[in-house]
Amino acid sequence: MSELKVGIDRVGFYTPRLYLEMTDLALARGEDPAKYHVGIGQDKQAVIPPTQDVVTMAANAATQILRPEDRSRIKMVLFGTESGVDNSKATAVYLAHLLNLAADTRAIELKQACYGATAGLQLAADYVRAHPDALVLVIGADIARYGLRTPGEVTQGGGAVAMLVSADPQIMALDAQSAYHTADVMDFWRPLDRTEALVDGRYSTNVYLDFFKQTWTAYQQQTGRTIADFAALAFHLPFTKMGRKGLRQVLPEASAAHQQELTAAFEASQLDNRNVGNLYTGSLYLSLLSLWRHGDLRAGDRIGCFSYGSGAEGEFYSGVLQPDYQRGFDDAALTTLLADRRAVSVAEYEELFQQQLPNNGQDVQLAVGADSAPYYLAGRQHQQRQYRHRMEA
User: How far is CA 179 from each of CA 5, 111, 186, rounded to the nearest angstrom?
Assistant: First the structure.
């Protein structure tokens, strides 16, 4: 009997239709644009209007990949985020309701900085291995906020990646082995009284690189595989230069020709992240999607994935591309989504940044007319967020 394949069957992605040019931000902050484009590796940054939060963005991503017959087969929704909207109720519960999923669906929110979606993916894979007829919806959705005129401002962004995990997946079958590492590290955190994160940028970069080397080494020891077994390595990309530094750590292990192939694959994997910014929990999975969309890949290629969440937890795992992997996502729709966004001025970006729902609990009615997304946040009444589906408005 052949081993059951389990992995990522379909992927959807959503980011709002507004962005900020990094050249404009650099000039407004008195910086050389090359510092942002080359030194950080970012070209555009998603701007999140107050009518979108992680729940609505997740719904807008998930609705791209769900078919009517899927809803009865989805047995779990695992929502990785560090931008939750409630300290008790899971974002996954709101999402399951918006998507009209069955009542016998587990709906759980997972939090460990940018690692949450990877925890969800691994839990989903284990569940499907035990229940091959089931589907699990895994979400990585976040809004990266560091504050205006802060060192981390250039690494903001936001969006959502939705993944359907199944047996006999279309896109990528996950290998059962992975290596992970956890340590209590204060490189990045967000206290309960803050909406913006605190970060020690240089220290966080060093921890990221150290965790990558530790998990990469442990993975090789577990599996006996070497860098020669990989067609590509995909990284968590809070900014694209971070992943480039990680790749450079291990490139000397590859032949000269293979180094060129791995470098070309990395360039493909960071294209979409350069133009969206930091997705926190969704960052690795936008990187993977970008690799699948833009890379020179073929069925049977093994892809290595490094996930990192500050605080800190890292994991290296791998998967094998399937023959119909390009049918698992809508490349044309994703290209259109990114191309049709509207650039905002620095002044408009700053205004939108300040327009998040206030923490005073007062009723708020948001101006929703400019938001064309299927799912949106209409405001707050009696301390409850008011989510809407445009088809039902």
Answer: 19, 19, 22
